[in-house]
Amino acid sequence: MKPIEFFPNRKIHFDIVQIGCGGNGGYITQRLAKLLASLSFNSDHSTFSYTLVDQDQVEEKNLQRQPFLPHDEGKNKAKVLAGRYGKAYQFPIFYREEYVESIQELRNCFPSNHATYVLDSNRILFRILIGAVDNNASRKVMHKYFLEDSSLIYIDCGVDGILRKGTAEEKRKSGYSGHCVTGIHYNDTMLAPVAGVYKDILKDKKSKLPTQSCGLNIVSQPQRMQANEMAALVTMGYLTQIIAERRLYSHYTNFNSLTHTMRPTLLPA
Fold first, then answer.
1. Cα-flanking dihedrals φ and ψ of residue 244, to 5°?
2. Global pTM?
3. CA-CA-CA-CA torsion for 228, 234, 240, 243, nearest 10 degrees?
4. Which pLDDT tens digit goes with each residue over 118-137?
5. Taking the CA of residue 113 as centre, how many other CA atoms within 13 Å lie in the half-sphere pointing to its CB?
6. What contacts 186, CB < 8 A, 6 or more positions away?
7. Long-range contacts of 120-125 (CB under 8 A, 24+ apart)
8. What letters, b where the CB count within 10 A reaches 16 and e where it falls short, cover 216-226?
9. Do 100 and 141 meet the contact criterion of CB atoms below 8 Å apart?
10. Backbone Cα Rg of the chain
11. What is the spatial distance between Cα 93 and Cα 260, in angstroms, rounded to a whole number?
């Protein structure tokens, strides 16, 4: 199957919004900020805006597997990452200290959706939504937005939690696997997003939005830093294909960070 091509001979503006700045999102920000800075410096073929969205504050427990430091405790995650990596790579990163729990809130996160936004007439607009959340309730919101936005690339990454029940061997091997799915909605072109690949997401009635969890934003199962880092690397592989190479070679990838294996699923024929 030929790869999907994203207007290789045209100038594009990529309006990138990342929902979630924890285990997966934090490591994505490290790598994506560096890539965007490099591409912005070396070429005028593409332009970028990058916005981080998360209302969570850094807690002591986050220091074990997320890219935060002790002096970050009590500060907003999105603000910390935007400041740190925006300064390190001299690339402006915007942030919003909020949870996204509706289509309208998600729509407002993209600068290109605002009435005051003006796009260079010589450029094509692509919005890129990066989902780095740990709950299906938030994925449902992103899925609904995906269906309505006809200039959207939606990349979702997720990892399995460590089992709390089972044999010692099952627990030891758990928490290392995950996925990264790229969905595309561009005019009449549609490539299924994460909820189209894993249909149980839309059937999940137990998952709650952050503000519906009685103020306790707790991951039901702990995660492994190794899985978070591999999720970020796989996600960056897709982002590099799209924004640097202007191509997409596969639809989604399943991985296991314990066995160092990845299994991409090719684009549909």
1. -100, -45
2. 0.95
3. -80
4. 988 899 999 999 999 999 99
5. 19
6. 126, 150, 151, 152, 153
7. 120/11, 120/13, 120/47, 122/11, 123/10, 123/11, 123/12, 123/13, 123/47, 124/7, 124/10, 124/11, 124/12, 124/13, 125/12, 125/13, 125/15, 125/151
8. ebeeeeebbee
9. yes
10. 18
11. 32
User: Residue ranges of the domains in the chain?
Assistant: 4-266
- Count CB-CB contacts under 10 A for residue 87: 12
Q: What is the pLDDT of residues 15-49, one digit of tens each?
A: 999 999 999 999 999 999 999 999 998 877 899 99
Question: What digits encode the pLDDT tens for the residues 222-246?
Answer: 899 999 999 999 999 999 999 999 9
Beta bridge partners of 266: 250
b/e sequence 62-80, b meaning 16+ C-beta within 10 Å:
beebbbbeeebeeebbbbb
- Asked if residues 235 and 178 have their Cβ atoms less than 8 Å apart, the reply is no
CA distance 2 to 101: 37
The span from the CA of 75 to the CA of 96, in Å, is: 13
Question: In sequence order, what are the residues at sequence separation of 6 or more whose Cβ sits closer than 8 angstroms to the Cβ of residue 160?
Answer: 174, 175, 176, 177, 178, 221, 227
Paired residues of 124 in beta bridges:
12
CATH code of the domain occupying 4-266: 3.40.50.720
C-alpha separations of 142 from 13, 15, 59, 133, 256 in Å: 21, 16, 26, 10, 25
State whether residue 152 is helix, strand or coil: strand
- Residue whose structure tokens are 């290789």: 8
- Structure tokens belonging to residue 152: 């959207």
